[in-house]
Write a structure and sequence with these properties.
The chain has about 600 residues and is of the alpha+beta class. It is built from 21 helices and 15 strands. The protein starts with a helix and ends with a helix.
Length: about 600
């Protein structure tokens, strides 16, 4: 019995850590590049709600906008998942990570840092980024890379090696960190944050105020040495010392820097309510543009916020996400991961369903804590040319214009369903951006876009004689199939808010506008209420019929049948028209009429005409 309780305890902490990291990432990402002076103060109560936002991409030569849906995460969570899948390969994790996961990540990364992307380019060429045979300037950039890109992905190491000595965790973090960063600020920042995660996961009693900071300071000798316990780290250190003769001195000075930051945290926490978070974060250099992206800064800032808000985790993550002027998505993600290790997952119940890929994140966390490794068949390293050939094939495939397309194979062998997004063309018509959304069979969502040069001015054709009932959405999310707005907003009484959200969001494609413990409001107008809602009415039974339009009706229909959901009317044409529909019941017996969006029929007809 005690063993079962211990397993449940660790499972909750593990799920909370993974979901907390993604939650902080999604909350903080929209604020990452916002100037502190440009943002008005906002009421604290509404800040933890996810929001849809627009991200500028493509640089100066190929500018375009990506629409980031509410709750979607950035490179922080992407790399946590890349590393998690690699660790689950067992002894071959490092090879799989550097030869498959990182090269493929370059194709779908969202907001990746410069140091990580430069290192990944090197791995795509089959060369370690610290290799002396690289160009001197490239090697120098690698050993000067001290950003938080290592610390932000340290969580899987702590989860996977939770029941082992920290030496094992440290070696794993160091080996991973060296794949992309060479400066002690990156590596030692990841080690001190990794120790905080590991210690919090293993702690069974309630964490007292400021206790975590004191434990990290007291155990400096555990997390601060260079982990040179295997041939890899010893060989790497030889190269590092050749490049920079005082490397070990630099490591020790970085350790002292971290201890100074931790002393500030301890002092400020002792002041209680007299301490102000923004002032503390400023002392920790979070708003200093010169070093606020350093691994040391992000690590200590997240430890401080997790310590201060251990009893109020959602506000701790929110504080990090809205520390405008800092690296908001990474600090919020790291704070969320640490708060999950401290508190488990219950504090995320009100926001969990709004987090991108929340089910997949939970499953991955459970696999890590139980070390469910997979046998690794022989695999071929993914090269840059392989990725380019694959994306050209997928983007140009005429099958993608068919609504019946179900699956494609990703370069790493995973199977995914694919949806087309709306193509954007440059203002001068000299380039276009094509968007695709992939949902893997395990449940991860991946967005990929392709920029093509050419003359695309004459290829743009506007619909003629569009029926007045057809609605076009000028800012429809790229790579996302989204239902039209409903003409009405009915309230539905449901027994389980969580199951109903999964039905309407994941199966029918509706998007959440606002969610609380008591109700959910979708952007399309639908409102879900608890079953007790019907007590306000006199009738003994309260059932409703809902009408929804979707773009990929074939896929939706198959998904609903596969889930065993009751189909009332099979997929067929509506009366004498070519407009397809079907009827099903949701989990509470409400009848749902699902119609194919009329604009989709027109679009397919036009594209067929273009190809002819």
């Amino acid at each position: 019995m005690a063993d079962n309780m211990q397993t449940l305890f660790k499972s909750s902490k593990t799920a909370g850590a993974m979901l907390g990291a993604a939650c902080g990432d999604a909350l903080g990402w929209p604020n990452e590049r916002v100037r502190k002076s440009k943002v008005p103060k906002q009421p604290q109560g509404c800040l933890h709600e996810f929001r849809k936002w627009y991200r500028r991409s493509g640089g100066r030569f190929f500018p375009h906008e990506e629409i980031i849906e509410a709750g979607e995460y950035s490179d922080d969570t992407q790399l946590i998942l890349c590393l998690s899948r690699s660790l689950l390969k067992g002894e071959k994790w490092f090879e799989f990570y550097t030869q498959v996961e990182l090269p493929l990540w370059s194709l779908y990364e969202r907001g990746g840092g410069g140091a990580t992307k430069r290192a990944v380019n090197s791995w795509q060429d089959g060369i370690e980024p610290w290799n002396p045979n690289r160009k001197p300037q490239e090697e120098t950039k690698y050993f000067k890379a001290g950003g938080n890109g290592v610390a932000m992905r340290a969580l899987p190491h702590a989860l996977y090696h939770c029941d082992r000595d920290f030496d094992k965790v440290a070696s794993s973090i160091f080996k991973d960190g060296a794949t992309t960063h060479g400066h002690p600020r990156a590596l030692l920042g990841a080690l001190v944050y990794g120790y905080a995660l590991w210690a919090s996961l293993r702690k069974e009693s309630k964490l007292s105020y400021g206790e975590l900071i004191e434990e990290i300071i007291a155990n400096e000798a555990t997390w601060s040495p260079i982990p040179i316990r295997d041939n890899f780290s010893q060989d790497w250190l030889v190269v590092a010392q050749k490049h920079q003769k005082n490397y070990e001195e630099l490591w020790l000075s970085t350790r002292d820097e971290i201890l100074q930051y931790l002393a500030i945290c301890k002092s400020e926490l002792s002041r209680g309510d007299l301490s102000f978070d923004d002032e503390v974060l400023e002392k920790l250099q979070c708003f200093n543009k010169q070093i606020n992206g350093a691994g040391t800064v992000a690590a200590v800032a997240s430890v401080y916020l997790a310590s201060r808000y251990a009893a109020d985790p959602i506000n701790g993550v929110t504080k990090a996400a809205f520390a405008i002027g800092s690296d908001t998505d990474t600090i919020a993600s790291m704070s969320g991961g640490l708060l999950g290790c401290i508190n488990g997952s219950d504090w995320l119940s009100s926001v969990k369903s709004g987090i991108q890929d929340h089910s997949y994140l939970e499953k991955t966390a459970l696999k890590l804590i139980t070390r469910q490794t997979e046998s690794v068949p022989s695999f071929e390293p993914i090269k840059r040319a392989d990725l380019m050939d694959w994306i050209d094939k997928v983007i140009s495939s005429p099958d993608l214009l068919s609504p019946d397309l179900l699956e494609v194979e990703l370069p790493d062998g995973r199977i995914a369903k694919v949806n087309c997004g709306k193509t954007q063309k440059g203002r001068n018509g000299k380039y276009k951006v094509e968007f695709r959304r992939f949902i893997t069979s395990e449940g991860q969502t991946i967005y990929i876009n392709k920029i093509s040069k050419g003359n695309f001015v004459c290829q743009q054709r506007e619909p003629e004689n569009v029926p007045p009932t057809i609605q076009t959405t000028p800012n429809q999310p790229q790579g996302v199939v989204q239902a039209d707005r409903l003409n009405m907003g009915p309230k539905l009484p449901v027994e389980s808010i969580e199951k109903s959200v999964a039905f309407y969001k994941e199966l029918l494609g509706l998007t959440i506008k606002k969610q609380s413990k008591e109700s959910v409001i979708f952007n399309q107008g639908l409102v879900l209420e608890p079953a007790s809602f019907v007590k306000e009415f006199r009738s003994q039974e309260f059932r409703s019929l809902l009408y929804v339009e979707v773009t990929d009706i074939q896929n939706r229909y198959h998904s609903i049948k596969e889930r065993g959901i009751q189909v009332v009317t099979p997929l067929e044409n509506w009366k004498q028209s070519k407009w397809r529909f079907f009827r099903c019941r949701d989990f509470d017996g409400n009848v749902i009429e699902v119609f194919e969006k009329q604009y989709q029929q027109l679009k397919l007809h036009m594209e067929a005409t273009d190809r002819a």
